[in-house]
Amino acid sequence: MKRKIGIIFSIVLMSFTLTGCTISFGNATTNTTTNFEIDKSSIVAEIYSQVYEQAKSDLYDDIYSALYEEFVGGTIDAETIQKQIYDVIEGTGQGNIGITNYTTTEGEQTPYATGSGVIYKKINLEGESYLYRYYFITNQHVVEDGTSFTADFSDGTSISAQLMGEDETTDLAVLTFDTNLTFQVVPLGDSDDLKVGQFVLAIGNPKGSSLYGSVNFGIVSGLDRNLLDDDGAVNTISSYIQHDAAINPGNSGGGLYNLDGECIGINSVKYASTDVEGLNFAIPINLVKTVISYLEEGNEYTGNVSFGITVTSVENLTSAGRIEYSVPDGVTSGVLVIEVSETGSSYGVLIANDIIVSIDGSTVSTTSDLGAYLQNAKIGDTASIGILRNGSNMTVNITFRRAISTTTTS
């Protein structure tokens, strides 16, 4: 079994060694003339993700055989995937731009921070001084404390940009700029379709304009990831995309793309430590689409409420864990509360070792169920929470407050 796994992944990895993991706009080429009439999603996302997900299961032999037959038969190969990468870089990836945040110091505008952005909307301006207005997304921490901003491009052009709205809880902001120039608009995909093992590209400007348009290749390493705040608590249950496409300071606000050229996430967080590698996180584009619909109109986003709890799914507990947290025999699902933050909405209502089994009458089996509910909850909403406490069923009410993220960002 180990030998089979080694063979197929060695073939794939050797194929990519020729191009490396980082590709710049300046080095991209589109000389490939071969036409590949394949279903990109089913070949790249589906087959590879199935191998990743099923590698330790009894189904592996069947999946391995099917994949190997496709590979040696030429239906899927490194050249196909390489062409898709080039198409993204030369196509919708061009809608990834830079942003500079300026502050006023002694009456003068000075650069304060730089980051990346994704152009997602263009409108025609009739009877105005300019032909077009573009909207782009970035991270809130990129624009924080800024007094003016510019949208920056690969040729050195900078255009004054206006901040339309920002939201600290989701770390998102929307800006606009007016121009007579034409720029690429990036299609926003569907992050609910993502699978672990799917190939992705992170495009952005690490270290600013000197490395403008850097492209890094990786896979989706995990989905529905909850990030801890400085106190170790889940201040909000967010479904972050975990991936290993390298991001660094300056990548903040840049896009995470699938190989069809759709932006499926906005890079926001990187864990930086001497003992940590490849832990990068992007805000799912479906959440982004909800938030920017408020921000682009200058309105406040009222979602992303604070729960203020550290949790885990009961089904993930080991035998030792069940004993440690006093989980009753026969309880196999629900969300275990490990710790309650003093600053969260749950403080004074939930306690450690509570098991959440329902919310507003809907069954809660895993943390994903809880996260799905919170994605649509609003500040000021009151939720009826069914819990199991000390072996007894009871119901408590929680009124949601604002969530403030304090996680280290990119």
What is the structural class? alpha+beta
Q: How confident is the prediction overall: mean pLDDT?
A: 76
Q: Give the terminus-to-terminus CA distance.
A: 39 Å
- The percent range for helix content is 10-25%
Q: Which CATH architecture of the largest domain is right?
A: Beta Barrel
Question: Strands across the major sheet, in which order?
Answer: 8-9-10-13-12-11
Largest sheet: 6 strands, antiparallel, barrel
% residues in beta strands: 25-35%
Poorly predicted tracts of residues = 1-41, 228-237, 405-410
Give the C-alpha Rg. 23 Å
Which CATH top level class of the largest domain fits?
A: Mainly Beta
> What count of domains describes the coordinates?
3
Task: Give a structural overview.
- The chain is α+β, with helices and mostly antiparallel strands.
- The chain has 3 domains: 2-90, no CATH class; 95-299, Thrombin, subunit H (Beta Barrel); 305-402, PDZ domain (Pdz3 Domain), CATH 2.30.42.10.
- Helix content is 21%, strand content 33%.
- The chain has helices at 2-17, 40-54, 60-72, 78-90, 140-143, 285-295, 319-324, 367-376; strands at residues 22-23, 96-105, 108-124, 132-138, 148-152, 158-167, 172-179, 199-204, 214-225, 240-243, 255-257, 263-270, 280-284, 305-306, 309-313, 335-340, 355-359, 362-363, 382-389, 392-399, 401-402.
- Strands 8-9-10-13-12-11 form a 6-stranded antiparallel β-barrel. It has a 6-stranded antiparallel barrel with strand order 2-3-4-7-6-5.
- Strand 6 (158-167) and strand 7 (172-179) form a beta hairpin.
- The chain is globular.
- The relative contact order is 0.12.
